Amino acid sequence: MMKKFLLTLLSTVICLSALAQPDTVSITLDNIAYPYPVKFLPVSTDGQDLRMAYMDVPPTVNTNGKTVMLFHGKNFGGYYWTSVIKALTAKGYRVVVPDQLGFGKSSKAFIHYSFYKLAQLNKKLLDTLGVKKTYILGHSMGGMLATRFTLMYPETVEKLLLENPIGLEDYLSFVPYKSAEELYKSEIKTTAESVKKYYQTSYFDEWKPAYDYLVKIGGNVSNSADFPRYAMISALTYEMIFEQPVCHEFGNIKVPTVLFIGLEDNTIVGKAYLSPEEQTRHGNYKKLAPATAKMIPGARLISYPGVKHVPHWQIPERFLKDLIDNL
Protein backbone atom coordinates (compact mmCIF):
# COMPACT_ATOMS: atom_id res chain seq x y z
CA MET A 1 0.00 0.00 0.00
CA MET A 2 2.84 2.36 0.97
CA LYS A 3 4.66 1.55 -2.27
CA LYS A 4 1.60 2.33 -4.41
CA PHE A 5 0.94 5.56 -2.50
CA LEU A 6 4.53 6.80 -2.90
CA LEU A 7 4.63 6.01 -6.61
CA THR A 8 1.30 7.77 -7.24
CA LEU A 9 2.32 10.77 -5.14
CA LEU A 10 5.72 11.16 -6.78
CA SER A 11 4.32 10.76 -10.28
CA THR A 12 1.50 13.26 -9.72
CA VAL A 13 3.67 15.94 -8.09
CA ILE A 14 6.42 15.66 -10.67
CA CYS A 15 4.20 15.55 -13.74
CA LEU A 16 2.16 18.56 -12.64
CA SER A 17 5.33 20.48 -11.81
CA ALA A 18 6.94 19.59 -15.14
CA LEU A 19 3.99 21.00 -17.06
CA ALA A 20 4.32 24.27 -15.17
CA GLN A 21 8.02 24.90 -15.75
CA PRO A 22 8.75 28.07 -17.75
CA ASP A 23 10.95 28.15 -20.84
CA THR A 24 13.31 30.58 -19.13
CA VAL A 25 14.30 29.92 -15.54
CA SER A 26 15.79 32.62 -13.31
CA ILE A 27 19.30 31.78 -12.07
CA THR A 28 17.94 32.04 -8.52
CA LEU A 29 14.87 29.98 -9.51
CA ASP A 30 12.57 32.88 -8.62
CA ASN A 31 9.95 31.58 -11.04
CA ILE A 32 10.15 27.98 -9.79
CA ALA A 33 7.70 26.87 -7.12
CA TYR A 34 9.23 24.80 -4.34
CA PRO A 35 7.10 22.17 -2.58
CA TYR A 36 7.20 24.03 0.76
CA PRO A 37 7.69 27.65 1.85
CA VAL A 38 11.21 28.96 1.33
CA LYS A 39 12.94 31.15 3.90
CA PHE A 40 16.29 32.92 3.72
CA LEU A 41 19.18 32.99 6.17
CA PRO A 42 21.27 36.19 5.89
CA VAL A 43 24.96 35.27 5.65
CA SER A 44 28.10 37.31 5.19
CA THR A 45 31.23 35.97 3.50
CA ASP A 46 34.08 37.32 1.37
CA GLY A 47 32.90 40.85 2.18
CA GLN A 48 29.44 40.24 0.73
CA ASP A 49 25.97 40.11 2.30
CA LEU A 50 24.19 37.09 0.84
CA ARG A 51 21.12 34.92 1.39
CA MET A 52 20.94 31.17 1.88
CA ALA A 53 17.57 29.66 0.95
CA TYR A 54 16.08 26.78 2.90
CA MET A 55 12.89 24.90 3.65
CA ASP A 56 12.11 23.97 7.25
CA VAL A 57 9.31 21.41 7.09
CA PRO A 58 7.56 20.23 10.28
CA PRO A 59 6.30 16.67 10.69
CA THR A 60 2.78 15.94 9.50
CA VAL A 61 2.16 13.52 12.38
CA ASN A 62 3.20 13.63 16.02
CA THR A 63 6.84 14.65 16.12
CA ASN A 64 9.49 12.13 17.11
CA GLY A 65 11.78 15.00 18.11
CA LYS A 66 14.34 14.21 15.41
CA THR A 67 15.59 16.25 12.45
CA VAL A 68 16.91 15.22 9.04
CA MET A 69 18.94 17.67 6.92
CA LEU A 70 19.13 17.09 3.15
CA PHE A 71 22.14 18.19 1.07
CA HIS A 72 21.43 18.34 -2.68
CA GLY A 73 23.75 17.43 -5.55
CA LYS A 74 25.59 19.87 -7.81
CA ASN A 75 23.02 19.88 -10.62
CA PHE A 76 20.03 20.22 -8.31
CA GLY A 77 18.40 22.22 -5.52
CA GLY A 78 15.92 21.57 -2.76
CA TYR A 79 13.09 21.08 -5.27
CA TYR A 80 14.12 17.50 -6.10
CA TRP A 81 13.71 16.24 -2.51
CA THR A 82 9.87 16.40 -2.50
CA SER A 83 9.20 12.67 -2.13
CA VAL A 84 11.87 12.32 0.56
CA ILE A 85 10.48 15.25 2.57
CA LYS A 86 6.94 13.87 2.38
CA ALA A 87 8.02 10.41 3.49
CA LEU A 88 10.12 11.69 6.42
CA THR A 89 7.59 14.20 7.72
CA ALA A 90 4.94 11.47 7.58
CA LYS A 91 7.11 9.52 10.04
CA GLY A 92 7.41 12.40 12.51
CA TYR A 93 10.70 13.94 11.37
CA ARG A 94 11.41 17.64 10.99
CA VAL A 95 13.20 18.13 7.66
CA VAL A 96 15.58 20.99 6.89
CA VAL A 97 16.44 21.44 3.22
CA PRO A 98 19.01 24.14 2.35
CA ASP A 99 19.95 25.36 -1.10
CA GLN A 100 23.70 25.71 -0.75
CA LEU A 101 25.22 29.09 -1.52
CA GLY A 102 25.56 29.30 -5.31
CA PHE A 103 22.71 26.85 -5.90
CA GLY A 104 18.92 26.82 -6.16
CA LYS A 105 17.28 29.93 -4.74
CA SER A 106 20.38 31.01 -2.80
CA SER A 107 22.60 33.93 -3.81
CA LYS A 108 24.79 33.41 -6.86
CA ALA A 109 27.93 35.13 -5.59
CA PHE A 110 31.46 35.33 -6.96
CA ILE A 111 33.25 34.03 -3.87
CA HIS A 112 35.75 31.34 -3.00
CA TYR A 113 33.57 28.24 -2.77
CA SER A 114 34.68 25.77 -0.14
CA PHE A 115 33.15 22.69 1.47
CA TYR A 116 34.49 24.05 4.76
CA LYS A 117 32.66 27.34 4.24
CA LEU A 118 29.43 25.63 3.16
CA ALA A 119 29.62 23.36 6.23
CA GLN A 120 29.99 26.42 8.46
CA LEU A 121 26.94 28.05 6.86
CA ASN A 122 24.86 24.91 7.37
CA LYS A 123 25.94 24.78 11.01
CA LYS A 124 24.86 28.41 11.35
CA LEU A 125 21.49 27.49 9.85
CA LEU A 126 21.01 24.66 12.35
CA ASP A 127 22.05 26.92 15.25
CA THR A 128 19.59 29.58 14.06
CA LEU A 129 16.81 26.97 13.95
CA GLY A 130 17.74 25.62 17.37
CA VAL A 131 18.70 22.17 16.05
CA LYS A 132 21.46 20.57 18.11
CA LYS A 133 21.53 17.08 16.55
CA THR A 134 20.53 15.99 13.05
CA TYR A 135 20.71 13.16 10.58
CA ILE A 136 22.50 14.29 7.41
CA LEU A 137 21.54 12.83 4.01
CA GLY A 138 23.83 13.95 1.21
CA HIS A 139 23.39 13.07 -2.46
CA SER A 140 26.12 13.41 -5.12
CA MET A 141 28.07 16.61 -4.35
CA GLY A 142 25.95 16.83 -1.21
CA GLY A 143 27.68 13.64 -0.10
CA MET A 144 31.04 15.39 -0.19
CA LEU A 145 29.60 18.29 1.80
CA ALA A 146 27.90 15.93 4.26
CA THR A 147 31.22 14.18 4.80
CA ARG A 148 33.04 17.46 5.41
CA PHE A 149 30.26 18.64 7.74
CA THR A 150 30.49 15.39 9.71
CA LEU A 151 34.28 15.66 10.02
CA MET A 152 33.96 19.24 11.27
CA TYR A 153 30.93 18.79 13.55
CA PRO A 154 30.71 15.13 14.63
CA GLU A 155 28.84 16.09 17.81
CA THR A 156 26.01 17.52 15.66
CA VAL A 157 25.53 14.48 13.41
CA GLU A 158 23.26 11.69 14.61
CA LYS A 159 24.02 9.58 11.53
CA LEU A 160 25.67 10.20 8.15
CA LEU A 161 23.65 8.98 5.16
CA LEU A 162 25.30 9.05 1.73
CA GLU A 163 23.30 8.54 -1.47
CA ASN A 164 25.57 7.95 -4.46
CA PRO A 165 28.08 10.55 -3.30
CA ILE A 166 30.68 11.82 -5.70
CA GLY A 167 34.24 12.16 -4.46
CA LEU A 168 34.78 8.48 -3.69
CA GLU A 169 38.06 8.92 -5.56
CA ASP A 170 40.41 11.89 -5.89
CA TYR A 171 39.55 13.28 -9.33
CA LEU A 172 42.53 15.59 -9.49
CA SER A 173 44.83 12.59 -9.29
CA PHE A 174 43.77 11.46 -12.78
CA VAL A 175 41.72 14.29 -14.38
CA PRO A 176 43.83 16.98 -16.11
CA TYR A 177 43.75 20.22 -14.13
CA LYS A 178 41.39 22.89 -15.46
CA SER A 179 41.18 26.43 -14.12
CA ALA A 180 37.82 28.08 -13.40
CA GLU A 181 38.23 30.08 -16.62
CA GLU A 182 38.66 26.87 -18.63
CA LEU A 183 35.75 25.19 -16.88
CA TYR A 184 33.60 28.24 -17.59
CA LYS A 185 34.17 27.83 -21.34
CA SER A 186 32.53 24.43 -21.06
CA GLU A 187 29.72 25.49 -18.73
CA ILE A 188 28.64 28.44 -20.89
CA LYS A 189 27.82 26.01 -23.71
CA THR A 190 25.11 24.34 -21.60
CA THR A 191 21.63 24.07 -23.13
CA ALA A 192 18.42 22.30 -22.15
CA GLU A 193 19.23 19.72 -24.83
CA SER A 194 22.73 19.06 -23.47
CA VAL A 195 21.37 18.77 -19.93
CA LYS A 196 18.82 16.18 -21.00
CA LYS A 197 21.43 14.20 -22.89
CA TYR A 198 23.70 14.22 -19.84
CA TYR A 199 20.90 13.12 -17.51
CA GLN A 200 19.89 10.37 -19.93
CA THR A 201 23.39 8.92 -20.13
CA SER A 202 24.63 9.57 -16.59
CA TYR A 203 21.69 9.62 -14.19
CA PHE A 204 19.07 7.13 -15.37
CA ASP A 205 19.22 3.87 -17.29
CA GLU A 206 15.72 4.27 -18.75
CA TRP A 207 14.16 7.68 -19.37
CA LYS A 208 10.74 8.45 -17.90
CA PRO A 209 8.63 11.54 -18.70
CA ALA A 210 8.73 12.51 -15.01
CA TYR A 211 12.48 13.20 -15.33
CA ASP A 212 11.75 16.10 -17.69
CA TYR A 213 10.89 18.09 -14.57
CA LEU A 214 14.57 18.01 -13.60
CA VAL A 215 15.69 18.93 -17.11
CA LYS A 216 13.34 21.89 -17.42
CA ILE A 217 14.79 23.46 -14.29
CA GLY A 218 18.43 22.47 -14.79
CA GLY A 219 18.37 23.23 -18.53
CA ASN A 220 16.06 26.21 -18.97
CA VAL A 221 18.21 28.34 -16.71
CA SER A 222 20.53 28.57 -19.74
CA ASN A 223 17.91 30.82 -21.40
CA SER A 224 18.30 33.47 -18.70
CA ALA A 225 20.10 36.73 -19.52
CA ASP A 226 22.09 36.12 -16.31
CA PHE A 227 23.24 32.66 -17.39
CA PRO A 228 26.91 33.69 -17.84
CA ARG A 229 27.00 34.45 -14.09
CA TYR A 230 25.41 31.08 -13.34
CA ALA A 231 27.92 29.32 -15.62
CA MET A 232 30.89 30.93 -13.87
CA ILE A 233 29.58 29.94 -10.45
CA SER A 234 29.11 26.41 -11.74
CA ALA A 235 32.76 26.47 -12.83
CA LEU A 236 33.84 27.73 -9.40
CA THR A 237 31.96 24.92 -7.64
CA TYR A 238 33.50 22.36 -9.99
CA GLU A 239 36.85 23.78 -8.94
CA MET A 240 35.81 23.20 -5.31
CA ILE A 241 35.05 19.54 -6.04
CA PHE A 242 38.37 18.99 -7.79
CA GLU A 243 40.52 20.78 -5.24
CA GLN A 244 38.89 19.68 -1.97
CA PRO A 245 38.65 15.87 -1.92
CA VAL A 246 37.20 14.06 1.10
CA CYS A 247 38.04 10.47 0.12
CA HIS A 248 41.36 10.54 1.99
CA GLU A 249 39.53 11.24 5.28
CA PHE A 250 36.81 8.59 5.29
CA GLY A 251 38.69 6.71 7.99
CA ASN A 252 38.29 9.70 10.32
CA ILE A 253 34.48 9.60 10.35
CA LYS A 254 33.31 8.92 13.89
CA VAL A 255 29.53 8.65 13.51
CA PRO A 256 27.31 5.79 12.27
CA THR A 257 27.27 5.85 8.47
CA VAL A 258 25.07 4.27 5.81
CA LEU A 259 25.77 4.32 2.07
CA PHE A 260 22.87 3.94 -0.39
CA ILE A 261 24.47 3.16 -3.75
CA GLY A 262 23.08 2.60 -7.23
CA LEU A 263 25.67 0.17 -8.57
CA GLU A 264 25.33 1.17 -12.22
CA ASP A 265 26.56 4.69 -11.43
CA ASN A 266 29.69 5.63 -13.36
CA THR A 267 29.95 9.30 -12.45
CA ILE A 268 33.35 10.90 -12.91
CA VAL A 269 33.65 14.65 -12.37
CA GLY A 270 35.69 15.79 -15.37
CA LYS A 271 34.89 12.69 -17.44
CA ALA A 272 34.87 14.69 -20.69
CA TYR A 273 38.55 15.48 -20.18
CA LEU A 274 39.54 11.78 -20.07
CA SER A 275 40.29 9.38 -22.89
CA PRO A 276 37.86 6.46 -23.34
CA GLU A 277 40.51 4.17 -21.88
CA GLU A 278 40.91 6.36 -18.79
CA GLN A 279 37.15 6.55 -18.35
CA THR A 280 36.95 2.77 -17.98
CA ARG A 281 39.43 2.87 -15.08
CA HIS A 282 37.39 5.18 -12.87
CA GLY A 283 33.85 5.93 -11.71
CA ASN A 284 33.06 2.25 -11.09
CA TYR A 285 30.69 2.41 -8.12
CA LYS A 286 30.51 -1.38 -7.94
CA LYS A 287 34.10 -1.23 -6.72
CA LEU A 288 34.20 2.24 -5.17
CA ALA A 289 31.19 1.72 -2.90
CA PRO A 290 32.41 -1.37 -1.00
CA ALA A 291 35.92 0.07 -0.83
CA THR A 292 34.54 3.26 0.71
CA ALA A 293 32.36 1.33 3.17
CA LYS A 294 35.46 -0.52 4.35
CA MET A 295 37.29 2.76 4.98
CA ILE A 296 34.51 4.23 7.14
CA PRO A 297 34.50 2.56 10.58
CA GLY A 298 31.35 0.48 11.03
CA ALA A 299 29.69 1.73 7.82
CA ARG A 300 26.76 -0.13 6.29
CA LEU A 301 26.38 -0.46 2.52
CA ILE A 302 22.97 -0.81 0.85
CA SER A 303 23.34 -1.60 -2.84
CA TYR A 304 20.89 -1.19 -5.71
CA PRO A 305 21.74 -3.30 -8.77
CA GLY A 306 20.54 -1.76 -12.04
CA VAL A 307 20.26 1.72 -10.51
CA LYS A 308 22.38 4.73 -11.49
CA HIS A 309 23.06 8.09 -9.84
CA VAL A 310 19.75 9.20 -8.27
CA PRO A 311 18.07 6.32 -6.41
CA HIS A 312 15.50 8.54 -4.70
CA TRP A 313 14.10 9.31 -8.16
CA GLN A 314 14.74 6.07 -10.00
CA ILE A 315 13.49 3.71 -7.26
CA PRO A 316 11.71 6.02 -4.79
CA GLU A 317 9.66 3.41 -2.96
CA ARG A 318 12.61 1.13 -2.23
CA PHE A 319 14.98 3.97 -1.39
CA LEU A 320 12.52 5.62 1.00
CA LYS A 321 11.84 2.33 2.80
CA ASP A 322 15.57 1.72 3.24
CA LEU A 323 16.14 5.31 4.35
CA ILE A 324 13.43 5.20 7.01
CA ASP A 325 14.50 1.73 8.17
CA ASN A 326 18.01 3.09 8.71
CA LEU A 327 16.90 6.05 10.79
TrEMBL record:
Keywords: Hydrolase, Signal
InterPro entries: AB_hydrolase_1, AB_hydrolase_fold, AB_hydrolase_sf, Epox_hydrolase-like
Residues annotated as signal peptide: 1-20
Keyword Transport tagged: no
Gene3D superfamilies the record matches: alpha/beta hydrolase (3.40.50.1820)
Domain AB hydrolase-1: 67-269
Gene Ontology MF term list: hydrolase activity
Record-linked Pfam families: Abhydrolase_1
Name assigned to this protein: Alpha/beta hydrolase
